[in-house]
Design brief:
The complex is a heterodimer. Chain A is an all-beta fold. Chain A is built from no helices and twelve strands. In chain A, strand 10 and strand 11 form a beta hairpin. Chain A is globular. By secondary structure, chain B is an all-beta fold. Chain B is built from no helices and eleven strands. In chain B, strands 2, 4, 5, 6, 9, 10 and 11 form a seven-stranded mixed β-sheet that branches. Chain B has a four-stranded antiparallel β-sheet with strand order 1-3-8-7, with no helix packed on it. The N and C termini of chain B lie far apart (37 Å). Classes of the chains: A mainly beta, B mainly beta.
Chain lengths: 115, 116
């Protein structure tokens, strides 16, 4: 069975602060993919990143960076110099070789960035 | 290009009525997925299709829920005899290939269903 845990229910920061969203996953598969999605106040679900289990290289995209560590089964997401527009619910998700398209989502982290 | 579209965006219905939710995937995407998202939770898998074939419906909660994709493009999720517990956001996603275990799923804006 797959499981994704986002232990932080809500995070509140002031603009320009750095913030890290935690994601811990469980799977028995050796091949799997991890995702982050953003759900802004408007409600749509926006894809941010996909990583596969064989690539532990950290990824940076502008102010966003992702730290994948198989040893701790974690795939954490850091926003540097946060902005008000980053306010959203962020979901971590897992898809593995035996789940065939059934994305397993965490419960989400509500990020509020105050001006 | 156009993303996944869903209609209606909002649906309010009375308990006992049937509802049909529509999903139009990204053009050319062969796989289509349905999820349900309760307030304050992440989306939960309902069912998915490769082309017109329903591959997995293990997430459908009971036999009041059904889905079809007759021509391998647009899909309809139907809920018969709606109950208040069916109130949720229903999300559709599509992906470009048949390798569903690795593909990125792109989501539509969702349909917010409220059953009174």
């Amino acid at each position: 069975a797959q499981k994704v845990t986002q232990a932080q229910t809500e995070i509140s920061v002031v603009e320009k602060e750095d913030v890290t969203l935690d994601c811990v996953y469980e799977t028995r598969d050796t091949t799997y993919y991890l995702f982050w999605y953003k759900q802004p106040p408007s409600g749509e679900l926006v894809f941010l990143i996909r990583r596969n289990s064989f690539d532990e290289q950290n990824e940076i995209s502008g102010r966003y960076s992702w730290n994948f560590q198989k040893s701790t089964s974690s795939f954490n997401f850091t926003i540097t110099a946060s902005q008000v527009v980053d306010s959203a619910v962020y979901f971590c998700a897992l898809n593995s070789g035996t789940s065939y398209g059934k994305l397993t989502f965490g419960q989400g982290t509500i990020l509020t960035v105050h001006p | 290009g156009a993303g996944v579209s869903q209609s209606p965006r909002y649906k309010v219905t009375k308990r006992g009525q049937d509802v049909a939710l529509r999903c139009d995937p990204i053009s050319g995407h062969v796989s289509l997925y349905w999820y349900r998202q309760a307030l304050g939770q992440g989306p939960e898998f309902l069912t998915y299709f490769n082309y017109e074939a329903q591959q997995d419906k293990s997430g459908l909660p009971n036999d009041r829920f059904s889905a079809e994709r007759p021509e391998g493009s647009i899909s309809t999720l139907t809920i018969q005899r709606t109950e208040q517990r069916d109130s949720a956001m229903y999300r559709c996603a599509s992906s470009s290939t048949l390798t569903t275990s690795t593909d990125t799923q792109y989501f539509g804006p969702g349909t917010r269903l409220t059953v009174l």
